[in-house]
Amino acid sequence: MGIFSSNSDHVLKALDLSFAIIEFDVDGNILTANKNFCDLMGYSPAELVGQHHRIFLESDYATSKEYAVFWAKLRRGDFECSEFKRIAKSGAEIFIRGNYNPIKSGSGKVLKIIKFANDITQTKIRGIESGAKMDAVSRAQATIEFSVDGKILTANENFLKALGYRLDEIVGKHHSMFLEGAYAASANYKSFWLKLTAGEFVADEFTRIGKSGKPVFIQASYNPVFGLNGKVAKIVKFATDVTERVENVNSLGDCLTKLADGDLSQDIKVPFIPSLDRLRTDFNAASAKLRNAMQTVSTNAQAISAGSNEIRHSADDLAKRTEQQAASV
Q: What is the reported pLDDT for 184?
């Protein structure tokens, strides 16, 4: 005796209240459908009975080999449970979590198929939208995921390219592989991970060390992801490689320092990133004007010096002549 045998009518009534239910013959023709199913798909019972299951499908799938195999499995008595996309009377896409249950006779012959389903359309759409947003973020940013103890779980192509690694070279390694040794062993770094495991969000500009040993500058946020138990399950980092920007700013700073020390030959030849290149061209223009101004000052100073010498010589000559005239009187 089955577990529900003594209360089968009550069980079916309970299922009828909470599930969208539809019955098919072994060829896929609709025998009956309950109110939940009709409301979900937008049909009346009279519009469904006698129609084939394929009225809920997109035409490409309805005529596919995959769909034929699907019904062959059900006629064979195989149970099918999954998420399915179906088309309502209005043409709207409906996503359901459903199970197709072959009902067999005492001899094992399949008599009909009963499907129990739940509408998961909104959940599915939210999942698709979230997935699309994450894909967009992944295309634009470097992303990497860590376990709560700092072990690398995965990373996208942007991150691998920025640091110069292959995925198999970093999975399972600790985040500290990207740090200078002194910082990796510091109390500040330990505090950094304690914040993350406590669920705190951390965003800043960071210096990391690539596979080549060169520093990589990133603008990044470390985001704790919470599990169903409310505890931090992993850390996801979103980052933008700002190495060129930092190098450009450092180059400009070095040139300004040399200029302040009196070296007027400063001229930045290598273009900056587009958003900063005007700083380079403006600096070069200002540096050139300062050089020209100082050259003009130098030229004028030399002319003044030459004029002063002429005046001094003339004064000396005048003084000598005066002395000579005085002596001859």
A: 95
